Amino acid sequence: MAEAQNIPVGSNTTGSIAVAAESTVATRMSAEPSFDVADFPVPHGREEEWRFTPLERLRGLHDGTAEASGSVKVELTAPDGVTVETVARDDARLGRAGTPVDRVAAQAFSAFEKATVVTVPKDAVLTEPIRLGVHGEGGVSYGHTVFELGAFAEAVVVIDHTGDTVRAANVEYVLGDGARLTVVSVQDWDDTAVHCSQHNALVGRDARFKSVVVTFGGDVVRLHPRINYAAPGGEAELYGLYFTDSGQHQEHRLFVDHDSPNCRSDVAYKGALQGADAHAVWIGDVLIRKAAEGTDTYEVNRNLVLTDGSRVDSVPNLEIETGEIVGAGHASATGRFDDEQLFYLMARGVSEREARRLVVRGFFAELVQQVGLPDVEERLLAKIESELEASV
Amino acid sequence: MATLEINDLHVSVETESGPSEILRGVDLTVKQGETHAIMGPNGSGKSTLAYSLAGHPKYTVTGGSVRLDGEDVLEMSVDERARAGVFLAMQYPVEVPGVSVSNFLRTAATAIRGEAPKLRLWVKEVREAMERLKIDPAFAERNVNEGFSGGEKKRHEILQLELLRPSVAILDETDSGLDVDALRIVSEGVNRVRETGEVGTLLITHYTRILRYIQPDHVHVFAQGRIAESGGPELADKLEAEGYEAYVKGGAPA
Q: For helices B150-164 and B180-195, what crossing angle results, to 10°?
């Protein structure tokens, strides 16, 4: 109780804040993290980490029946100086940024044949992004990719997911001391695709990691962006934008594990939903461990429901084991674009389509600006436009 | 010359116990340049008339006609009505999060005028209109009606009236909840638009107070869903003195 009062004035405490002697974020998972799929029982859907997910639509990724039958076309372009390797499962560089936390992530780690390791050497400052295109060509696929930045290296990675596949593939980001990495991961799948991925970032001393997760497509997309700090002074910014259409299930489950002192994290995810049975899930877990004095963290999730029949589950969790922090807060809110707003705009001559566009663009504008990459920003705005076009 | 003709208008709303008729045969003609005050007690249907003319989906027209320069207004969607020249200043303007006032105004002006106003001229036009209404320039970057006080919302409505230049302006209880200073500023805005001679004004109000600032040509008393009595400005004086009792069903006998 005394610790709860140490939350600095001005922290936003909307939602639940648990002050726990031991982590319940970790214990809320039904099994311990493991690289081996056999360590996880087949989920039945009532587990905390699966209760929002339509298991029957995972096409067997969760129960071992999804044989790697399909293929994806992978295109990777990297500026000079960057090393791209295809490595065997036993390569020592795999699995350092984090351990799979659920059965599908472990399935991905257990089933991939070769992994890709992309290395940016120490001190290299890239002027062009590393681009990875993953295009699904049907069937089930597994994969594993590691991006590693040496000390003080700086890079931007843009990952594009398109086409149709049932895919479980994890991504690791390993940041050396003082490194800076911005990752944009776009899930622009066909509406039939299934995609599950755990994104683990291990943030070195004084390193800065920025992730922008953009989910538009897919039948089911379920991502776990997760942050671990290897040393003090790291910063992580996690931005997300999703546009969930009729029938789509898009789930983002974030976890920031503050286990080192003087680290910072800033999480902002925004989503718009429209159409019958559009379902977005956002889980934002932040754990400030006993050792993580001087932590500064804030997370926010905002949703805009454009039509009836859509559903949002937004669950922010903040657990604080030390009071010696700079700041900790979280907020979640879901608003509706309602008939009265539509009437007001239309009564000023604005067409229904233009009215929706105005509201949705306004809703996302602030977040898009935080991306900081003009070409990506342009593309996001264009994509938001086309999502609106497709539906109105 | 723009003329709004309302003939035998009947309007219902859906209630838990089925449709309920609110307007029971409204007849009214508003010509360009004229100002008509519609006064009446709460629940008489004044606001229903305003929202029905603008096309709010909650109200169902069950009979009668509304024409603007001969065009059938009831056939038009809400945005078509606005583009045809109907403007409704709302009693309770709606908050639109994420949409800035400046973006909103420009989008509306583009829709109404049929082309985007030239940016440089537009910026000046908005700035001057805001100055006249004593609206803080910082408002331009705030979200539409979000966190606005009652008076700020009403001034923002009149700002739109000035910028969008409709041929028919329906002001739904624009005076309610305003202090005297705000009432004066808002009334001056309405009067500037009226003085152009290009707008027919339907001033809906519960109180006679605003009529000290905006002089109507015609005054109509609204009761039980229709116009119960029409007259000149002197009718407002009578209402000021006697109230609405004579028009309210079961009211005190004369």
A: 10
Are A137 and A216 members of one domain?
yes
Alpha-carbon radius of gyration of chain A? 20
Helix (H, G, I), strand (E, B) or coil at B186: helix
Domain span at A81: 11-339
User: By mean pLDDT, which of A17-21, A235-239, A251-255 is the weakest?
Assistant: A17-21
Kindly state whether residues A377 and A247 are assigned to the same domain: no
Of A294, A317, A339, the last residue of a domain is A339
Tokens representing residue A345 in the block = 């705009």
For A362, nearest residue in chain B (alpha carbons): B98
Q: Mean pLDDT across the stretch B70-86?
A: 97
Q: Residue A330 domain-assigned? A: yes
A83 & A43 share domain: yes
The last residue of a domain, from among A322, A339, A356: A339
In chain B, what residues touch A359 (CB-CB under 8 Å)?
96-99
Give the pTM.
0.81
d(Cα B187, Cα A198) in Å, to the nearest integer? 61
- ipTM summary value: 0.95
A244 shares its domain with A389: no
Residues pairing with B12 in the sheet: B21, B60
pLDDT at A254: 97
Sorted by sequence, the CB contacts under 8 Å of residue A306 that are 6+ apart come out as A272, A273, A274, A337, A356, A359, A360
DSSP code, position A128:
S
Please tell me the distance from the alpha carbon of residue B162 to that of residue B147, in angstroms, as a whole number: 22
Q: How far apart are CA B57 and CA A78, in angstroms?
A: 55
Same domain, A125 and A65: yes
Q: What is the total residue count of chain B?
A: 254
- For A348, which of B55, B77, B164 is closest by C-beta distance? B164
Nearest C-alpha neighbor of A126 from the set A184, A172, A81: A81
The 10s digit of each residue's pLDDT in A283-297 is: 999 999 999 999 999
| Side-chain half-sphere CA neighbours of B95 within 13 A | 11
Residue A236: inside a domain, yes or no?
yes
Determine if residue A354 is left, alpha or beta; phi over 0 gives left, psi from -120 to 50 gives alpha, anything else beta: alpha
Are residue A88 and residue A170 in the same domain, yes or no?
yes
Q: Is residue A4 part of a domain?
A: no
Nearest chain B CA: its distance from A159 CA (Å): 29
- Candidates A344, A353, A356, A364, partner chain B, best to mutate (most B CBs within 10 A): A344
Closest CA to B88 of B5, B23, B165, B172: B172
**Single-letter amino acid, residue B63:** G
Q: Please answer yes or no on whether A339 and B57 come within 8 Å at the CB atom.
A: yes
Question: Does residue A244 sit in the same domain as residue A391?
Answer: no
Domain assignment present for A3: no
Q: Rounded to the nearest 5 degrees, what angle is found at the Cα of A239, between the Cα atoms of A199 and A108?
A: 15
Long-range contacts (CB closer than 8 Å, 24 or more residues apart) made by B123-129? B125/B163, B126/B102, B126/B163, B129/B159, B129/B162, B129/B163
Q: Give the number of beta-carbon pairs within 8 Å between A and B.
A: 81
Same domain, A254 and A361: no
Structure tokens at A183: 């990752």
Domain total of chain A: 2
